[in-house]
Design brief:
Length: 655
């Protein structure tokens, strides 16, 4: 325990109070959902948290079934994480006895000058985040881009929300696993050493590790450190390395270890290779012998056997030296392996290989062999072919072949009706991953494109997946005609005929009251409902829009006349509360109630959000995103649910 506290104290010294200027929301996407954790709250009045999610730019939706409270009951702490971690959790709040946590403990810890140390110690212990109410696992996202919003709750109100970065659900995050682990069997102890994970966004969110130990290579393995701890690291040969020492061993014991990195949310990386060590051993490992190399598809396969003398190695590495002196050190799959496949060998290159076995500071190296990998295999085809049509040209782009020796690409087009006669578009190789095909401005027939990769040895790949492209469409679509128009309670319903054009993208319904036409909605259906919000004679027409944005001639005009049945509310205003948009209006004297509708300015979607009584003249929308624009409508109704002309107002978020 003393070593654990020393590690945490040294870690905490690297933080300053300014590091926790606001709550930081961290996410990790796994195969089963999204892990969320937030760190840095110093407000002792916060009693709980709620989490909201926005998918693909939509409104934020509450996803926590109930607020996430700070656990104060010692009995509940012990039930959740066990007695050891429960006691450790209490020490983080300055409590040195087994009792319930009280508000004065929280206030004292979060108002102390050393609060940065307190926060850092909690940051390095993700298994305790559920006790502080600062962790949530979202099992429900169905896909797309999600943004999460974490909102603190105090006794009197909800606080400022804290947002996460956008995450792509369905694309799992991969936490770097520990690699190049060296184990040394010292006197009555074992020391594990491994380099820090390569710098990346996820690597920077690693807060510690778990070490697992067994007396057998096949397990069972038990976790050695009872809590996640970020270890000390020291400079060795200008490389930052982690070290961890196991004192619970005896000389001559044979022990197996593996290590997992721990993300700030508590997610674990895949485990490292299993490492074997004999405690107190000072003998060089067995020597790799009879090393042979052979071609294996695009790769080189090495095989070897082991000498009879010496203990088994803890690690096995392959040393590859390319002609010109460039060397690379590659790790084999396991110390017991006798086969290694070098998938990174380049065709046509001459290589020298040696197998190196190591145990602690001792190594045994095989003889060196040479091998030339001749290139007779075509490269893999390019993929992800895409096209963008423009007036008189088509721009093609693709993702490169995964092979390293690609010299360029050739592009083929088939313009016949069956796409059976592809022709090469240029006599020289395309350098890069884009090409522009010039076509006639009046061309309307579809064309099929494919791309092949050519390597430096002249081998040509199979074609990419074909892509059919139609040149840009300059012709307007055929018009539609209005077949019916009806008026019910200030709501106008229109139906219209389908355009005979094949590439219809939408039908745009337009409205005019004083000679100026305005779009009231776009739809892919052959009907649309409009609530004009005005009285008098109103004219309608329909314009067809195709996939290229071309507009048809307008349909014939149809009109209706709306007469008011009840007065419209007056003085509709919209203001932003702490966690809602509030509407207020002046009452209508003979109204039996009011209908409230919300319109999304981005899509034009109109939703009836509530019907309220006659005495209500103020209403709060807690589900609308205050960071986007909305239009609200309020209409009065009679006792028999006849609605008058609505009044509308627009909400614009501050920029």
């Amino acid at each position: 325990m003393r070593k654990v506290m020393l590690c945490l104290l040294l870690l905490c010294c690297t933080f300053t109070t300014s590091s926790w200027a606001q709550v930081q929301v961290t996410t990790f996407v796994s195969d089963s959902g999204v892990h969320l954790r937030w760190i840095g709250n110093t407000d002792a009045s916060v009693e709980a948290w709620v989490v909201e999610r926005s998918t693909d730019g939509g409104p934020f939706v509450l996803i926590t079934p109930e607020p996430l409270h700070l656990v104060t009951s010692y009995k509940e702490m012990k039930q959740r994480v066990g007695r050891y971690l429960a006691s450790y959790y209490l020490t983080l709040w300055g409590v040195n006895e087994e009792r319930d946590l009280v508000s004065s403990d929280v206030k004292r810890a979060l108002s102390a000058k050393s609060v940065s140390m307190h926060l850092a110690m909690r940051a390095a212990a993700p298994e305790l985040a559920q006790l502080s109410g600062e962790y949530f696992f979202d099992r429900s996202p169905s896909g797309g881009s999600c943004i999460y919003r974490v909102i603190p709750i105090t006794k009197d109100s909800m606080g400022k929300p804290y947002k996460s970065e956008a995450v792509q659900v369905g694309i799992s995050d991969v936490l770097p696993r520990p690699t190049d682990i060296t184990v040394s069997g010292l006197d009555q102890s074992v020391q594990l050493t491994w380099p820090r994970a390569q710098q990346s966004k996820l690597a920077s969110q690693i807060v510690g590790f778990h070490v697992w130990k067994s007396s057998s290579e096949y397990g069972p393995f038990e976790r050695v450190n009872l809590q996640t701890v970020l270890p000390l690291f020291a400079s060795k040969d200008a490389t930052a390395e982690f070290t961890w020492t196991d004192d619970m061993v005896e000389n001559s014991d044979t022990v197996y270890y593996y290590v997992c990195h721990v993300h700030a949310t508590g997610a674990l990386s895949t485990r490292s290779n299993i490492c074997r060590v004999v405690v107190g051993s000072d003998e060089a490992p067995k020597r790799p012998v009879s090393v042979r190399a052979e071609r294996f598809g695009h790769a080189v396969r090495l095989t070897w056997s082991w000498s009879a003398q010496g203990p088994p190695p803890q690690q096995v590495h392959i040393l590859r030296i390319q002609s010109g002196g460039t060397s690379a050190r590659m790790e084999a799959a396991a110390p017991t392996d006798t086969t290694y496949i070098d998938a990174l060998a380049g065709m046509g290159n001459v290589y020298r290989y040696a197998v190196v076995a190591s145990s602690g500071d001792h190594t045994s190296t095989s003889d060196t062999i040479s091998f030339t990998l001749t290139d007779v295999v075509p490269p893999s085809p390019p993929h992800g072919l895409q096209a963008k049509a423009d007036t008189g040209k088509i721009l093609l782009t693709w993702l490169p072949s995964i092979d390293q020796d690609v010299a360029g690409y050739v592009v083929f087009v088939a313009a016949d009706s069956a796409f059976r006669n592809p022709l090469q578009l240029q006599s020289t190789l395309v350098q890069g991953t884009s090409f522009t095909d010039v076509v006639e401005r009046t061309a309307q027939d579809s064309r099929q494109y494919t791309v092949k990769a050519v390597d430096r040895s002249g081998n040509t790949s199979a074609p990419s997946q074909p892509l059919i492209v139609k040149p840009i469409d300059l012709a307007p679509p055929a018009p539609s005609q209005i077949t019916s128009i009806t008026l019910v309670d200030s709501t106008v319903s229109l139906t219209f005929t389908a355009s005979i054009s094949r590439d219809v993208a939408a039908y745009s319904v337009e409205r005019s009251t004083a000679g100026t036409w305005q779009t009231v909605g776009k739809t892919t259906q052959l009907r649309l409902t409009d609530v004009p919000g005005i009285t008098g004679a109103i004219r309608y027409r329909v314009v067809v829009i195709d996939s290229s944005g071309n507009r048809s001639k307008p349909s014939q005009e149809r009109s209706v006349t709306i007469t008011p049945t009840i007065e419209a509310p007056q003085l509709l205003t919209i203001s932003k509360d702490t966690f809602a948009l509030r509407l207020t209006w002046k009452a209508v004297s003979n109204a039996a109630g009011y209908r409230i509708a919300r319109i999304d300015k981005r899509t034009g979607d109109r939703v009836i959000v509530d019907n309220v009584g006659s005495r209500v003249t103020s209403w709060a929308d807690r589900y609308a995103d205050p960071d986007q624009g909305w239009i609200y409508e309020v209409a009065a109704r009679t006792n028999n649910w006849k609605f008058g002309v609505p009044i509308s107002a627009e909400y614009r978020p501050r920029q």
